[in-house]
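Help!! Second protein's tokens look totally different from the first
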Amino acid sequence: MTRVLLAFLMRRHWWTCGLCVMLPVMIGSIVGVIYPTMEKERGVIGPMLDLMRNWFPELPNFLRPEGAFVWPYMHPMTLLAYVLAPAIVALAQPAGERGRGSLDLILATRLSRSRLVSSVFLFLVPVSIVMGLGPFLGSVIGSALCGELGAVPLGAYLLCSVEASALSLFFGSLALLVSVRSRDRGQATLVFAAITIGWFLVDVVSQMWKDAPDWVARAGPFGYYDPLGLAREQQVPLALDLFVLLGGVAVCVGCAIWSARRRRSA
């Protein structure tokens, strides 16, 4: 790890990572503004929502505070932000520098390949933690705006943030592994996008297929992210979810360092 590299990553990527964090914050704030205006619609929307939840049991009850303000954790844009924020950093280092031909100059210093990879990973850790706290901040702001802060299970939402941070760090570690093994940023982005889209499709199939076996949902990392169950304070295997996600992080980072050491060229 080098302070120079970490400072460089901070200067280059703090704007993009900050914009990704703002997505769930804005979603929660918007929900807080809209929620009080839905009083008249509750009698009409309620039966329709119950019918939809027969097919989509993961759909939260937006007519209740505990369901409405878990939305910043579940919104598709939030899931996309979990993926993008760490991936932007990881795909730039080292694949982006390799494609521009500047990685040779970086490695000509005292910075080794393994230290480069480990430094990028250490930078991804606070990025992922902040990404997990973004939905929590959005839920707090939104519920406070409409006077429903007391009805929101903040303790359960913090557990959701822990799981969200682990999910974001998993995708960052995967992007780092792909970045190490790719010839340039274009190839790394293509491979990472293909893997991520595939897992998104698996998650969609598991939710739309009413009688889908449990292994379908568990076939991808999104199957180990259950903010709705945690927000409802249900019996969610949080320890297992974190073990799988963080175990995947350890495997990806270990393979990335091993691959970086075995490279014969930058």
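Here's the second one for comparison:
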Amino acid sequence: MHPHFKVPYYTYVLGGLLSRADVDGLRFRKLGVPEIDGIALEFDGRRVFVSSNDHPDINPAMVDWADSYGKVNLAPDTEPFPGLVPLGPIFGIRLWPKPTAYRIAVRMAMAGAPLLTTLRQVRFQAITKLPMAVYTPSPASDSGYVFFRARRWPPKHEEANEPRYRFLEAMQGVDVEFEGGLATDRITLMDYLERTRRSALVFNCPAVHRCLGWKLGEFLALGKAIVSTPISRRLPAPLRHGEHMHMVEDTFEAIREGVETVLGDDAYRRRLEVGARRWYEQHLAPDVLTDRLLAGEWPTTADW
């Protein structure tokens, strides 16, 4: 693997790949590629490049280098090319506990990565993130409780905050216990996940640059009833309204109506929960993503 990459953004993909290999077999070298925004690696004789950055841009040099080119935030009108794989909304997980993480960081530094930056990144994933095994659905959500918590994006990304403001406004006066808002303090990730599991619904909207936020991947893994504004990035398969999530336009009125619809129909909410988790298992789970990535498979689904 090329030693220069932003560790917390790629632990999900690496987790799937390393489930097929011994961690002690992981080696770092430059692989003859330039400095890149992503990860480049060789696996079973196949060259793999993955980009999870917020922009839909394609790196021409890595198109030439890679047998498989995995991309999280593809524009909907992207023309497919051999090996291109739309990955979907991956998120950060704890891949290595601290002792293993530090050993990996030393290997990366010996291959040319900046030591202090790499140590900070592997420590971040070891301390602040949780293993993939914790992302499981709750047996039952609470129809009388809604939880929402998110960081406020800085002023240069104010457009990413605006749907959240509309959701918070829409929740005012809804007859449920509502907890959360735009966070000014910190809670543990486990506490956040437990409250999210309990919540009757969750709200999704694009993050900065209209990208797929980590929360969407987490919501799907947790099997939540998702109220979502339109998704503007290509996915490995469609997320269908009424089956996998409840889609609404990005207006106060539409968000309020969507919230009331999901809260007012227990059977419908349960269908969305089951559908979300099923979509995750079929299209986003690490083993499924790894299979698609190594095969370089463009989706064959016709009804985009």
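Reply: Different proteins will give different token patterns, so don't panic. The first strand starts at residue 39 and ends at 43.
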